[in-house]
Each structure stands twice: as C-alpha cells, then as structure tokens.
Amino acid sequence: MVLFLSLLIILSILASKVSSRFGLPLLIGFILIGIIVGSDVLNLVYFDNADLTKRVADILLIFIIFEGGFRITRGEFRSVAGPSLTLATLGVALTSGILGLIIHFALGFDLIYSLLISSIISSTDAAAVFMITRSNPIKSKLASTLNIESAANDPMAIILTVTFIQIAMQSFRSPLIAILSLLWQFAGGIIIGYLAFRISMFVFHHLNSESRGNYNILMLGCILFAYGISDALKANGIIAVFFMGYWLGNANFPAKRSVSGFLESIAAMFNIALFIMLGLLAFPHRFAAVWKEALIIVAVMMFVARPFALFISTIPFKYSAKEKVFLMWGGIKGAVPIVLATYPLASGLDSSGFIFDVIFFAVFLSCIIQGTTLGLLAKAFSFTERRRLESPHTIELHSLRSSNVEMAEVRVDENSPCIDRPISEMNLDKDLLISSIVRDGQIVLPKGSTVVKANDILYVLAPSAKVNELAVKLNGV
Fold it and tell me: Whole-model pTM?
C-alpha cells in the first residue's frame, strides 16, 4: 500500500510537469491517473463511495481555497474587485439560470433538475485558471480579474447547488427565508473571516514558539476554526476561509515565510489528492451514455450562458469587446463542479450517477478545449506582456518573532534611473540594506562600488513601511 501511494505521488508530480509543458490544466493529468488506476482500466482500486468523497473533498477545498485567497495581493484585489466579485456572484447566478433554462427546454429535463445541473457547473476553476495565467504572461488587469473571480465564485455555486437539492428533496423553506439565509451566508462568511483573521493575528503574535512547525500547525487550526465557526452559525465557511486567507496574506505575522511555503505545499498535495480521488470515482464506460448531453451543456455554457452573464455583469466596468471575449473564454471548469456533482449523488437524488457522469465529462471537455486555447487567444488578441525571467534563487527573512523589517525583492526595470549607477551613488535611505543581487541567474554579493544593471533582482532588507517607497525609488514610478 505504501509503495502504491508513493508511486501515485511521483506519477502525479511527473504528470504536472507534462501538463505544464503542453499547456494543459493540471487537473487533467491527476484525474487521468485516478481513472487509470481505477476500476475501469487497471482495476487496482475500486472506489464508488460518493458520500466519503464529498466529505473528504469538502475538507480539502477548505485549504485549497484559503491558499487561493492568501496569494491575492491587496493591490491586485482592489484593482479589479468590482468586476471580479460581480462575476463571482451575479455572473454565476446568471450563468446557472440561463444554462438551466436551456437544458430544460433543449434536453427535456425537469426544471429543478436542470437548474441543479447548471448550478453545479456554473463556477470556474481557480487551480486551472491560476496555472494558465501564471504560465502565460497575460495582461495584469485580465489575469487578476480571472484569478479573483475563479477564487471567489465557488461559494455562490455551492449555495445554489445546496438550494436546488433542498428544493428537489422538498426540504426547502420559504423564499424569504432562503434569501435571508443566502445574504447571511455571504455577510456572515465575510464577518467571521475577518474575526478569524484578527484572532489568528493575535495568537500568532503571542505564541513565541521556537519551532517553525508550531506556526504551521497553528495556521491549520486557525483555518479549521474559521470554517467550523461558520458552519456552526450557518454562514458560508468557504467565504470565511477565502477572505481570512486574503487578509492574512496581506498582513505581517511571525513565521509568515515558513507558513506561506507550508500552505503552498499542502494546497498542492490536496489538489493532487482531490483530483485523483475524483478520477477514482469516475467510471469511463458510462460516458458513452452521456456524451451528447455533456457536449450540449459545454457548448451552451461556452457560447451562450457564460458570454451573456459576463456581458451583463461587466456593463458598469471598463472592458473592451475583445477583453470581454477573452474573459468569457476564461470560464474554465474544474474541481469544484466535480465535487458538487457528488452532492446529489450522496443525497440519493442521483442514484444512477447520471449527473455526476455528465458533469465529469463536461468538465473534462472544458479543460481540454478552453484550457489549451486560452493562452493562444491571449496571444491572438495581443493581451500578453513580456515575460519576466524568474530568479532561480530566493533569499528570504524567516522570523519567529514580530518584526518591523522584511526582505523585499525588487526587480530593476529597463527604464530605471538606477541603471549603470554604483550602489553608493543611489542615495538610498540609511535604513535600507541591499543584501544580495541576482543577475543572469547568479548571486552577486554587493559592495558600494557594485553597478546596478537592468533586470537585476535586488534583495533589500528594509522596514516594512518603506518597501513600497523603495520600489518607487528604484524604478522611478
């Protein structure tokens, strides 16, 4: 068993490398591994427990979505918060409504059944979108819009899915109670997320532990605390952990570097575990019975529902027609719709597995079609920017206590006034210390006579309050 798990992990990492090379969303490789080792191919693992999948997936998504919020910078969020959050709420609702009505009339399904299917597949996938926007140097405005929308739209899809399951099972309360519940889930989630952020900051600043590992474990506890309190108070835990992650990611606290690396690792591990588990739950031999419905749903989603919802949602915001077309095509489906497809399966509404099979195959088609062409569309519309070479070295300040200084990484732009000037003549604040320079992939130990070159990456020990000022001074912007 241990050998089998080790091989799965190694194969998953290799699959991620292959997926990146061919521009495919990571989830395709992971899901394929799950399918291959599952009952329909190699029959190494037989797994058909939808209820267990739902329970495990819900826990994994807590940390995946928290980490997504943790990576969003305040500047990135503020620049596109309006359109992104509108798409993540109104856009998802419109997409679900339009798609549900078309499914009802085109395929002849019951209206509630149709709206349930459309709600499940209405959200875009953060993991797939993040991978594509990071691997392609897409314009910051568009990349940020897609990133934040994809990270923030899952709660709306979850709420809609649960609502239509309740209606289908005749456990739905009055519309007024439903609307109030919806408002509380959003507002309560944000409020609890903020309170959990403040509590986490207090605990982190007063822990005073000598072990970095304790801070990592503490963060896990804080995340689960936020979700648990939200669940107990009937607010939306996903919204709570997303905003808690956003606020913590933009705050300074002890051992933040260590915690950040830890969060990245567990999010990657949980993504792999989630996709492989979903692959195991799939039975490809059943796709032959649903491919027509899945193809219709994907076509309507890509060319009718998503475009209409996006154009309506972005009316108040300044996006060109080409930018709207690009954002429309960025509605890639992924893990959350497949996880949500286990909800009706676990509740007994989908005993035949029809909804799960349709959603699974539709998501797979979306990843193949949109995931492989979004980067090409960005190039065709001239929405790509010059790619900045990533430094092979990272120099960080790991602090287990509260600190008013940080190690800032500043890239010297080609139009910087500091180019071809010695460090001693740059008139830097006396509180700033350039500890190292990365140039052409090599680390340069700076002296006062060291001349700064374009595209140098400077690692500067600076007071936290002066980091933004430092970037402005070095690049003259």
Answer: 0.82
- Contact yes or no for 350/356 (Cβ under 8 A): yes
Environment class of 322 (CB within 10 Å of its CB; exposed 0-12, middle 13-18, buried 19+): middle
**Beta carbons of 119 and 344 less than 8 angstroms apart:** no
Q: How many CA atoms lie within 13 A of 144 on its CB side?
A: 15
What's the CA gap between 459 and 438, in Å, rounded? Answer: 8
**Residue that wins the pLDDT comparison between 388 and 463:** 463
Residue 62 vs residues 149, 276, 297: alpha-carbon distances, Å: 17, 17, 28
| 2-380 belongs to CATH 1.20.1530.20 | yes
Classify residue 443 by its DSSP letter: E
Measured CA to CA in angstroms, residue 82 lies from 51, 68, 77, 208, 351 at distances of 36, 18, 9, 39, 40
Task: Judge whether 408 and 417 are in contact, CB under 8 Å.
Answer: no
pLDDT over threshold 70, residue 458: yes
* Residues 334/363, Cβ–Cβ less than 8 Å: yes
If residue 249 lies in a helix (H) or strand (E), which one and from where to where? helix 237-249
Question: Is residue 130 within 8 Å of residue 147, measured between CB atoms?
Answer: yes
Per-residue pLDDT reduced to its tens digit, 292-336: 999 999 999 999 999 999 999 999 998 999 999 999 999 988 878
Nearest to residue 149, comparing CAs of 163, 164, 128?
A: 128
472, 473, 477, 389: which is closest to 438 by C-alpha?
A: 389
What stretch of H or E contains 444?
strand 442-444
Report the residue count for the chain. 477
Q: How far apart are CA 429 and CA 470, in angstroms?
A: 9
Percentage above 70 pLDDT, the chain: 94
The amino acid present at 1, given as its one-letter code, is M
Which fold does the domain 405-475 belong to in CATH? Alpha-Beta Plaits (3.30.70)
Q: Give the C-alpha distances (Å, rounded to integers) separating 462 from 166, 250, 394, 431, 459.
A: 54, 17, 16, 6, 9
Three-state secondary structure call for residue 40 = coil
Domain ranges of the chain: 2-380, 405-475
Give 8-30 pLDDT, tens digit per residue.
Answer: 888 888 887 777 776 666 777 88
